[in-house]
Design goal:
Order of helices and strands: HH
Strand content: under 5%
Keywords: Coiled coil
Largest sheet: none
Oligomer: single chain
Number of strands: 0
Coiled coil: 23-73
Radius of gyration: 25 Å
């Protein structure tokens, strides 16, 4: 792998890690929101407040949908990180093989 390619790949991988960290924090907060919405709904059900139950049920579903989207984005970023790391490793292995082949052909 050439130096310029390594720099670009490393930078891209760094950006993916930053996105992953941000999405991880966002996912954790979204999970907290879902849990809070669930607790509020349970409280409304306990006090038998049908209007509030309907409103909180809708909010809980919205929170769950948002959580699913965040989780999907987080999974996608993690997959991209794995792909980028794999590409870097493969390029380095190919580069090492090419260097080894050049060294062998000079001996023969």
């Amino acid at each position: 792998m050439r130096s310029a390619e390594r720099i670009v790949s490393s930078a891209r991988l760094g950006e993916l890690y930053e996105c992953s960290a941000l999405l991880r924090r966002t996912r954790q907060r979204a999970e907290e929101i879902v849990n809070e919405a669930r607790a509020m709904l349970a409280e409304a059900e306990l006090y038998d407040d049908p209007i509030r139950v309907l409103a909180l049920n809708a909010q809980l579903e919205e929170a769950r949908a948002a959580y699913r989207r965040i989780l999907q984005a987080y999974t996608t970023i993690c997959r991209k990180i794995a792909e980028e790391r794999s590409a870097i490793i493969m390029a380095e292995v190919k580069g090492a093989r090419a260097v080894a082949q050049e060294g062998l052909s000079g001996v023969a």
